[in-house]
């Protein structure tokens, strides 16, 4: 199911962003090796993580107009892993398959090639658009003696929900956060119902982060499984904080519908192969001045996805101009939306649910 416990399937506020620059490869390599050791990967596996991260970072340095690498950990009840994501603007790859072939490593890199990075990873995904840029994601779990990834690693590659957050330029702490969990009481064919929440704490920095952390805790701890009830729990939890904008979506695969309740400037969309459908929020400030709640219901688009983001992304993006995007993992979809529409003058967060229905 993914890097999850029995109820909360993922929650995020990312800290370890490395921006393009002369020290990108060295900084990312050292941090990757240290992080791998910290989560318990053995010496050989930690070296593989460092090698893969260096190759990815070197590609950004040599080819991207602008780029960044996000390094973070994933956890199940029993295992931990290192995950990296690269997001870059630049020429992109005209032929991704050729770029992944052996011997196609860029000049000046370590020479292992992106194909080797893909083989080292337990889960690997890349999407590239010529003239726009590339997003690459890879996960590294511990390996057994037979050199096969643990069961948790294989499950992690099938995440239903993933996303990322990025702080405003000059700030270390992001005031946005998101989380997702399952409603295991829901019955019907296919996946159980999935709940997704995003909160944008007012302003920036630690006080904004405190508000969004309170929202994540309330979302995680409440037994309520309907969006309006969850929003009320978040509103109560944010009293005494700055407050923020927040939204909750409930995806019901059996009923093929999504119910959405939002207050403030969280943008929600259903993505289909032919366009997107906006999910509406109402004005107000959660924790301070929350008006009457309203839940909107929409049918789920065939083969589509749910995307939610803060106002650190503009709404001037068009996923249909990124060929094949909806065939990729939720994390890569989120990365492409951040690359397309993210701004540096605000905290930014985006979360995507895909493969749920």
Automatic annotation (TrEMBL):
One Pfam family this sequence matches: SpoIIE
Keyword Chaperone attributed: no
EC top class named in words: hydrolase
EC numbers on record: 3.1.3.16
Domain PPM-type phosphatase, chain residue ranges per copy: 146-355
SUPFAM superfamilies, per database record: ATPase domain of HSP90 chaperone/DNA topoisomerase II/histidine kinase (SSF55874), PP2C-like (SSF81606)
Keyword terms of this UniProt record: ATP-binding, Hydrolase, Nucleotide-binding
Listed GO MF terms: ATP binding; protein serine/threonine phosphatase activity
PANTHER family assigned: PHOSPHOSERINE PHOSPHATASE RSBX
UniProt protein name: ATP-binding SpoIIE family protein phosphatase
The species this protein was found in: Streptomyces longisporoflavus
């Amino acid at each position: 199911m993914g890097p999850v416990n029995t109820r909360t399937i993922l929650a995020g506020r990312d800290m370890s962003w490395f921006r393009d620059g002369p020290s990108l490869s060295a900084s990312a390599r050292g941090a990757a090796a240290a992080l791998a050791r910290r989560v318990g990967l053995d010496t050989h596996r930690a070296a593989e993580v460092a090698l893969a991260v260096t190759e990815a970072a070197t590609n950004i340095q040599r080819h991207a107009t602008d780029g960044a690498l996000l390094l973070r950990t994933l956890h199940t009840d029993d295992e931990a892993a290192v995950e990296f994501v690269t997001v870059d603007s630049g020429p992109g790859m005209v032929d991704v398959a050729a770029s992944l072939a052996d011997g196609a490593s860029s000049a000046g890199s370590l020479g292992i090639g992106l194909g080797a990075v893909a083989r080292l990873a337990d889960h690997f995904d890349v999407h590239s658009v010529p003239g726009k840029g590339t997003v690459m994601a890879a996960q590294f779990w511990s390996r057994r003696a037979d050199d096969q990834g643990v069961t948790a690693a294989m499950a992690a590659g099938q995440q239903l929900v993933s996303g990322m957050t990025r702080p405003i330029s000059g700030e270390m702490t992001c005031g946005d956060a998101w989380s997702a969990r399952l409603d295991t009481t829901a019955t019907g064919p296919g996946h159980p119902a999935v709940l997704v929440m995003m909160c944008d704490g007012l302003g920036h920095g630690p006080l904004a982060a405190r508000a969004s952390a309170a929202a994540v805790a309330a979302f995680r701890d409440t037994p309520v499984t309907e969006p309006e009830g969850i929003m009320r729990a978040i509103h109560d939890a944010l009293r005494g904080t700055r407050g923020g904008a927040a939204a909750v979506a409930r995806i019901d695969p059996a009923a093929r519908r999504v119910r959405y309740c939002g207050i403030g400037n969280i943008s929600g969309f259903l993505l289909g192969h032919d366009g997107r459908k906006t999910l509406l929020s109402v004005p107000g400030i959660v924790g301070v001045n929350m008006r009457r709640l309203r839940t909107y219901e929409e049918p789920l688009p065939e083969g589509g996805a749910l995307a939610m983001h803060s106002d650190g992304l503009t709404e001037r993006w068009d996923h249909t101009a990124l060929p094949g995007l909806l065939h990729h993992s939720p994390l890569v979809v989120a990365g492409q939306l951040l690359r397309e529409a993210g701004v540096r003058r605000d905290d930014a967060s985006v979360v995507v649910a895909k493969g749920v229905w």
